[in-house]
């Protein structure tokens, strides 16, 4: 993967080409997180059944790593020239805060029902999405446990408009250096954790927003390289095979300080290959209508799943005891379906209408594709000239651009591929 020139490229025209495969992949990442939590909650008591869950989802927590890399990639990919920082921040707040506020209120309601103590200061931190900055044990997991990742995302959103001009002007050699350096910095977090008190080491490597931003910037830099037509990663089949081999190997034999770095690279290869497949019109198993819908509700699914599972298990008296025999897997499947229904409702009646109401509208514009280098006839990103012409004609015919709709007809302000989950 090398560039042919070291001169800074002109700022690339952002793309609004549809990337439905990334939406479908978001659901796979959400499912990994769900499976990990189902395993750690010990819902399945039967050893043989639990062994299957553990084997499949032991690294499921890394699904959040995928979300962070994806977030950096799609936000740079979809950035438009001349857009104001306030418009960007307003759009991001409109996307994440309505769902966050609903789950914040629901979690407080559950705490009241079970008579759980709630620290007012921790609640305020969570409400303002500042909890990831607090290293005190339990505080960064306060109220709705999984919202710590939104606290990190909020930090990423704040930084991106400030850093994007520098990214656009960076020389290709700088971008390639970052692609190599960022995974190494992720690896360096593990020895660096010894610089903080032992009680804060998990927070430092897994929660601290600047540390987790390394994954976000990895995706952002890869998107910039793709927009310039410089990315030369494997295609989707090869990237998927690399990911599967990495996952299996890491789950069985590789220590955590290594697999976090290896999976970051594997996730990046899958994300870039899936985007390449969509832009160039090659086949992708991730852009089917069911998967696209699942990806669209994955953000809501992520936010509700832990609260639902813990609340039901506590209410039924089965918290920490597990279910014997076939009932364990059946309960996990039931939780999956219930969370999907709730996520669909949240997406339909909160997330989508609030995005329409609160987010600034974007003007329609025909899609563009990443620039090809001189002499390229089939770059890893741009696809064929015929595909670019077809996209442009589709826009000129009046089809509103979507982020990842896969033909859903959603307009830009309603689409979801440019978001974390």
Helix and strand arrangement:
Elements: H1 20-40, H2 47-57, H3 63-77, H4 85-113, H5 120-127, H6 148-169, H7 172-192, H8 201-206, H9 209-227, H10 236-253, H11 256-280, H12 289-296, H13 298-316, H14 327-358, H15 385-396
Helix pairs in contact: 1-2, 1-3, 1-11, 1-12, 1-13, 3-6, 3-9, 3-11, 4-6, 4-13, 4-14, 6-9, 7-9, 7-11, 10-11, 13-14
Residues in helix, %: 55-70%
Total number of beta strands: 0
The sequence of SSEs as H and E is HHHHHHHHHHHHHHH
Radius of gyration: 21 Å
Helix- and strand-based class?
mainly alpha
Strand content of the residues, in percent?
under 5%
Number of domains: 1
Shape: globular
Describe this structure in words.
It is a single chain. This protein has 421 residues and is mainly α. The chain has one domain (20-396). Helix content is 63%, strand content 0%. The chain is built from 15 helices and no strands. It has helices at residues 20-40, 47-57, 63-77, 85-113, 120-127, 148-169, 172-192, 201-206, 209-227, 236-253, 256-280, 289-296, 298-316, 327-358, 385-396. Helix 7 (172-192) packs antiparallel against helix 11 (256-280). The chain is globular and about 60 Å long. The two termini are 29 Å apart. The relative contact order is 0.18. Residues 21-347 form the Acyltransferase domain. InterPro entries: Acyl_transf_3_dom, Acyltransferase_3. Residues 410-421 have a biased composition (Basic and acidic residues). This is Acyltransferase mdmB. One of its GO terms (molecular function) is acyltransferase activity, transferring groups other than amino-acyl groups.
């Amino acid at each position: 993967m090398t560039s042919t020139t070291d001169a800074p490229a002109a700022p690339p025209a952002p793309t609004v080409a549809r990337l439905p495969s990334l939406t479908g992949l978001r659901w796979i990442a959400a499912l990994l997180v769900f499976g990990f939590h189902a395993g750690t909650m010990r819902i399945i008591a039967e050893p043989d059944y639990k062994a299957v869950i553990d084997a499949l989802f032991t690294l499921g927590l890394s699904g959040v790593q995928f979300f962070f890399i994806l977030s950096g990639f799609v936000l740079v990919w979809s950035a438009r020239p001349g857009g104001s920082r306030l418009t960007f921040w307003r759009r991001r707040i409109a996307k994440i805060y309505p769902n966050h506020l609903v789950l914040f209120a629901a979690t407080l309601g559950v705490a009241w029902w079970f008579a759980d103590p709630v620290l007012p200061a921790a609640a305020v931190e969570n409400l303002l999405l500042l909890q990831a900055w607090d290293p005190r044990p339990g505080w960064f997991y306060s109220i709705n446990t999984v919202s710590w990742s939104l606290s990190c995302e909020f930090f990423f959103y704040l930084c991106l408009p400030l850093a994007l001009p520098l990214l656009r002007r960076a020389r290709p050699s700088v971008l390639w250096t970052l692609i190599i350096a960022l995974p190494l910095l992720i690896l360096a977090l593990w020895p660096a954790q010894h610089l903080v008190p032992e009680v804060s080491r998990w927070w430092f490597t897994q929660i601290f927003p600047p540390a987790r931003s390394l994954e976000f910037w990895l995706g952002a830099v890869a998107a910039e390289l793709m927009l310039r037509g410089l990315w030369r990663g494997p295609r989707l089949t090869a990237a998927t095979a690399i990911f599967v081999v990495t996952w299996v190997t890491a789950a069985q034999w590789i220590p955590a300080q290594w697999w976090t770095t290896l999976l970051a690279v594997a996730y990046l290869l899958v994300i870039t290959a899936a985007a390449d497949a969509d832009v160039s019109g090659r086949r992708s198993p991730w852009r089917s209508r069911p998967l696209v819908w699942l990806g669209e509700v994955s953000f809501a699914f992520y936010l509700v799943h832990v609260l639902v599972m813990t609340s039901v298990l506590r209410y039924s008296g089965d918290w920490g005891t597990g279910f014997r025999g076939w009932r364990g897997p059946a309960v996990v499947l039931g939780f999956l379906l219930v969370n999907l229904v709730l996520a669909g409702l949240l997406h339909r009646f909160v997330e989508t209408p609030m995005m329409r109401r609160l987010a600034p509208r974007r003007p329609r514009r025909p899609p563009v594709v990443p620039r090809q280098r001189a002499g390229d006839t089939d770059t890893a990103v741009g696809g064929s000239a015929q595909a670019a012409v077809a996209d442009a004609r589709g826009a000129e015919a009046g089809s509103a651009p979507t982020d990842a709709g896969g033909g859903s007809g959603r307009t830009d302000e309603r689409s979801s591929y440019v978001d974390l989950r």
